[in-house]
Amino acid sequence: MFNGAISSSRQSSLMSEYASLMGDAVLRNRARIAEHSARLEAEFASRIKSEFIANMSHELRTPLNSIIGFSKLIAEQKGGGLSVEEAAEYAGLIQDAAGHLLAVINDILDISKIQSGKFQLNNREMSVDEVLRPCVAGLKLTAQNAGVDLSCEIAADLPELSADGVKLRQVFTNLVTNAIKFTPAGGRVFVTAKAELGAGTIVDICDTGVGMTEEEIRVAITPFGQVDGGHNRWREGTGLGLPIAEALVKLHGGVLSIASEKSVGTTVTVRLPRYIPPKPPTLENQLASSPTANATLSSHAR
């Protein structure tokens, strides 16, 4: 019996030691996985940062070079060497370059304010139709110049929602502009808006463009990320349009999702919640929130 007790004790000790070793092994494995994930994230962030610095240098220098170059040409023609037509053309090119530069700076400021939590929305009761229809109409010429067919279909029964019209238009402008930008000539961009049963409004921006892989989608929604980060990429941009759109949709309580297939096209879906009118305050709530009522109730209590 004594030997049996010793054997049982030894088995218990061995089991405890085995459990301890297994626990240590699991912890080491988890630590290795966490370290590997952290290293991948750090490498991804470093690559995005490097591409951002290179892209911003390119995006800022290009319009600045145009502004400096054409303004210098105008300044050097003090003797009247330029015709009125040439001066007007140069002034127009300077204006276009300045507008592009301002758009880049505004994008940087917007994403900075959003990330710092200081971005404010001026919400009001409205329908998506109010901003989506003029947005698409305003981009018709851009699509036409790119050889892309742009069409829009908006349901008549869209529910009201609480939104900042200016920022919501910025969302759809960014998304439709992106769709046009990455759709080759002869392609199509189709925008639809409809009511989502019991939930609000759903807007789809579909294109027959170049499409993206899962990894490219991940890069595209990362601030300053460029799917094609080289200076010889076939489309220019800061890589902020999609992240800003996603952040603004989230601020409205909505969701932005992307479905894409390489060489087939992309569909960006925006879901926005319907407007729920606030309930009228009850008499009990009014009394509870009124300082005068509280003072009266306190005096009666005494």
Please give a structural write-up.
With 302 residues, the protein is α+β, with helices and mostly antiparallel strands. The protein has 2 domains: 1-119, Helix Hairpins; 124-273, 2-Layer Sandwich (Heat Shock Protein 90). The protein is 59% helix and 15% strand. A 5-stranded mixed β-sheet has the order 2-4-5-7-6. The protein has a two-stranded antiparallel ribbon with strand order 1-3. The termini are far apart.
Keyword list:
302 residues; alpha+beta; extended; 9 helices; Heat Shock Protein 90; 5-stranded mixed β-sheet; 7 strands; two-stranded antiparallel sheet; 15% strand; 2 domains; Helix Hairpins; disordered C terminus
* Low-pLDDT residue intervals, each spanning 5 or more residues: 229-234, 295-302
Overall mean pLDDT: 81
The spatial strand order of the largest sheet comes to 2-4-5-7-6
Assign the CATH architecture of the largest domain: 2-Layer Sandwich
Whole-number count of domains: 2
Helical residue percent band: 55-70%
